[in-house]
Amino acid sequence: MSALALTAAEVADLRAAFPYFVRHSSEERPPAYLDSAATSQRPAAVLDAEREFLETANAAVHRGTSGAVGAATEAFEGARARVAAFVGASPDEIVWAENATDALNIVALGIGEANAGAGLGVAGSERYALGAGDEILVTEAEHHANLIPWQRLAAKTGAALKFIPVREDGTWTLDDARAAITSRTRIFAFAHISNVTGFIAPVAELAALAREAGALSVLDACQSVPHVPVDLHELGVDFAAFSGHKMLGPNGIGVLYGRPELLAALPPSRTGGSAITKVTMESAEFMPPPMRFEPGTQPVSQVVGLGAAVDFLSGVGMDRSAAREHELVERLVAGIAETPGIRLLGPSDTSQRAALAAVSVDGLHAHDVGQFLDEQGVLVRVGHHCAQPLHRAFGIASSTRASVHLTTTEDEVDRFVDALRGAQRYFGVEVSA
Ligand SMILES: Cc1ncc(COP(=O)(O)O)c(C=O)c1O
């Protein structure tokens, strides 16, 4: 990490900007919030932006001609421009979705529509033709959100769903991808950062590999956009998806990025008001992207909140935040490595990982570990983290995951490791050093 990491004093200042941390700080044992990979806390700037919008400018966007509608639309589209800039994209490449799951479904279901007849009349939709003999490639490490939509698309079109198996430590390499991709691969979908192993995929190389093979690359950027600088144009992916609520923003808002010519040719999977140019009793014609994919009343205050979240993150500096989080991940991994009887899922080389660390405690069910940690005020995620195939590859059903963010402290990381050791003692697990 070349950027100067945020200092402890800066982290303390940052925490003061989050009502959640301020409210809990007077407690005897404030919670160690280590579950940002599931959902992050929000700074006052985000909560205030939503509230301010609702109190002063709430109106339907892109509907009607009043000044109020104009102001609300400006706030809505202004946020789109800022979110686009945050990931190195342009506003017409950004589609609002409910969350990353929804964003990935817009692509998979849209390709399904393209194959279900005349592609809803969308010009160029034939570029998405998919059928027997074609392949959709994913990895064994995917979150279900980046797996099940592709399973469904394969089932609908007759394409084969193939996957890159993970190695023992949950990683996979560019060479593994080279071995799996073929001239029949049409879609290659993979996560930038795994939500279980924290493994960072070599995205630019993988996108280039997909391009050479004539396949579309679809990036699940859920765990990367909140934690590391991401420039989607530089990475060269065709589509990408991420969620507002994991990047200090509101729930109910997610983002689909797509290259303009690909969005232009993609049929909408959800249809209805606002997204059309002409409707008769028999048929409909659709607007160009992004509005084609945004039918119905949009979550405007959430969009405004997400705009404030990217302003906040940009103000901190993603490079400095990533450098800080890298130090925290190193501390997490070191603490785990020093604790016998605990298996780290994912690479032990911290240069290959970011954002989180999940573990399996020998002799203990993750839910018992989670309950013990909860009693210690250490808030983590236990379960399969929506990645059952990956857990199956590890030979376990569930794990315990601690995830960091720019507000996480060293003390919180240490409390996690201490609590794991405490769980071993509490449940009488015998560990040999
Ligand atoms: C890697 C990854 N992909 C997709 C998702 C789905 O995100 P959401 O539930 O916000 O749609 C998550 C959420 O945990 C995730 O971690």
Could you explain how this protein is built, in words?
The relative contact order is 0.17. Helices cover 40% and strands 15% of the residues. It is globular. Helix 4 packs across helix 11. The longest helix has 20 residues, at 67-86. It is an alpha/beta fold. It contains 15 helices and 15 strands. The model has no long low-confidence stretch (mean pLDDT 96). It folds into two domains: 8-42 and 317-422, Aspartate Aminotransferase, domain 1 (Alpha-Beta Complex), CATH 3.90.1150.10; 48-314, Aspartate Aminotransferase, domain 2 (3-Layer(aba) Sandwich). Strand 6, helix 9 and strand 7 form a beta-alpha-beta unit. The strands form four sheets. Strands 2-8-7-6-5-3-4 form a seven-stranded mixed β-sheet, sandwiched between helices. It binds pyridoxal-5'-phosphate.
Structural class: alpha/beta
Shape: globular
Query: What is the end-to-end distance?
Result: 32 Å
Order of helices and strands: HHEHHEHEHEHEHEHEEHEEHHEEHEEHEH
Top CATH class of the largest domain: Alpha Beta
Number of domains: 2
Strand order of the largest sheet: 2-8-7-6-5-3-4
For the record, the CATH architecture of the largest domain stands as 3-Layer(aba) Sandwich
The count of DSSP E runs of length 2 or more, i.e. the number of strands, is 15
